[in-house]
């Protein structure tokens, strides 16, 4: 836990500076937690990309607890706030890879970090002793297949690919069947991430989803949406669109170490009811971490062990 907490603290340093430090300054300048204090706290949350609806819920709950528990000390305020955030983020949620082969369909816009996430995820499973197969289903973007092949070679996993411009659903079909015949534990399918022609993109994703579901009826199918934390509230808009199209089951939030907008984790979980399952908090191959709500909250606020 200590190593993980330390890595979380390091990865969230910009969010702490841009968000938590502002709360600390606000608390330090107040003799009592009154209406003016809570209004200013709301403003800090909104500026931290937590989102309006989530902010109102968190600050409203905090206000009630401060009144009920007659809280006057800063450390008690932080403890309540930390617990509210842990409660909002819910129980730890991990990718379901119990089936054989388990399939993870990775979706998201270009530039969010899909390829890197797939490579790091494949590395994690390989380290766990699992046989991993990667499918190069982003057949539209120039260089996407080559980039994924570099990762497959680096990690030491098999790659299923077709020619650039070919049908992504055909790649998914071949990948699932190759995974089944070769005894793969996990099949990770890349998908196209164009923003333009959004309707066409979503139809392609739905087709891939149908193919996988048909080939592996009843097997767990994770739809992992990769979001760039630096885009803040725009990440929530993306999540809504992708979730409506293919039923996103979890989110990988990348580049969290490079932004002060880490509060978006709260907005995504609260507004969309989609669990954040993975976060990227560094450039290293091991810096894609399973998301843990309690560790996140502690790294954000107290940074202290239980």
Tell me the layout of helices and strands.
Layout: H1 2-11, H2 13-28, H3 35-47, H4 52-69, H5 74-89, E1 102-107, H6 114-127, E2 132-135, H7 144-155, E3 158-160, H8 168-181, E4 186-190, H9 198-215, E5 221-228, H10 233-246, E6 250-254, H11 264-272, E7 276-280, E8 288-290, H12 293-300
Helix pairs in contact: 1-12, 2-3, 3-4, 4-5, 4-11, 5-12, 6-7, 8-9, 10-11
Annotation keywords:
306 residues, Four Helix Bundle (Hemerythrin (Met), subunit A), Rossmann fold, 12 helices, 53% helix
Structure description:
- This protein has 306 residues and is of the alpha/beta class.
- The protein folds into two domains: 88 residues, Up-down Bundle (Four Helix Bundle (Hemerythrin (Met), subunit A)), CATH 1.20.120; 189 residues, P-loop containing nucleotide triphosphate hydrolases (Rossmann fold).
- Helices cover 53% and strands 13% of the residues.
- Strands 3-2-4-1-5-6-7-8 form an eight-stranded mixed β-sheet, with helices on both faces.
- A hairpin with a 7-residue loop joins strand 7 and strand 8.
- Helix 1 packs across helix 12 and helix 5 packs antiparallel against helix 12.
- The longest helix has 18 residues.
- The chain is elongated.
- The termini are close together.
């Amino acid at each position: 836990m200590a190593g993980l907490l330390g890595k979380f603290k390091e990865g969230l340093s910009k969010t702490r500076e841009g968000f938590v430090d502002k709360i600390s300054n606000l608390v330090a300048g107040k003799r009592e937690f009154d209406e003016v204090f809570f209004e200013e706290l709301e403003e800090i949350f909104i500026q931290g990309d937590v989102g309006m609806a989530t902010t109102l819920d968190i600050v409203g709950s905090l206000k009630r607890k401060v009144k009920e528990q007659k809280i006057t000390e800063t450390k008690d305020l932080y403890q309540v706030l930390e617990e509210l955030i842990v409660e909002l983020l819910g129980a730890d949620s991990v990718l379901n890879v119990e089936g054989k082969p388990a399939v993870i369909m990775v979706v998201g816009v270009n530039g969010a970090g899909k390829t890197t996430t797939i490579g790091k995820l494949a590395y994690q499973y390989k380290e766990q002793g699992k046989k991993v197969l990667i499918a190069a289903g982003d057949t539209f973007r120039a260089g996407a297949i080559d980039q994924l092949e570099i990762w497959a070679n680096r990690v030491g996993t098999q790659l299923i690919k077709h020619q650039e411009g070919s049908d992504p659903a055909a790649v998914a079909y071949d990948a699932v069947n190759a995974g089944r015949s070769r005894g793969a534990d996990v099949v990770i399918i890349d998908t196209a991430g164009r923003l333009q022609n959004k309707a066409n993109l979503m139809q392609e994703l739905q087709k891939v989803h149908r193919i996988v579901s048909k080939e592996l009826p009843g097997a767990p199918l994770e739809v992992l949406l990769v979001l760039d934390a630096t885009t803040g509230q725009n990440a929530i808009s993306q999540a809504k669109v992708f979730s409506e199209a293919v039923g996103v089951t979890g989110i990988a939030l990348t580049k969290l170490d490079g932004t002060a907008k880490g509060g978006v984790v709260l907005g995504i979980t609260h507004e969309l009811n989609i669990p954040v399952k993975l976060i990227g908090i560094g450039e290293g191959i091991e810096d894609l971490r399973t998301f843990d709500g309690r560790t996140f909250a502690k790294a954000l606020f107290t940074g202290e062990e239980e």
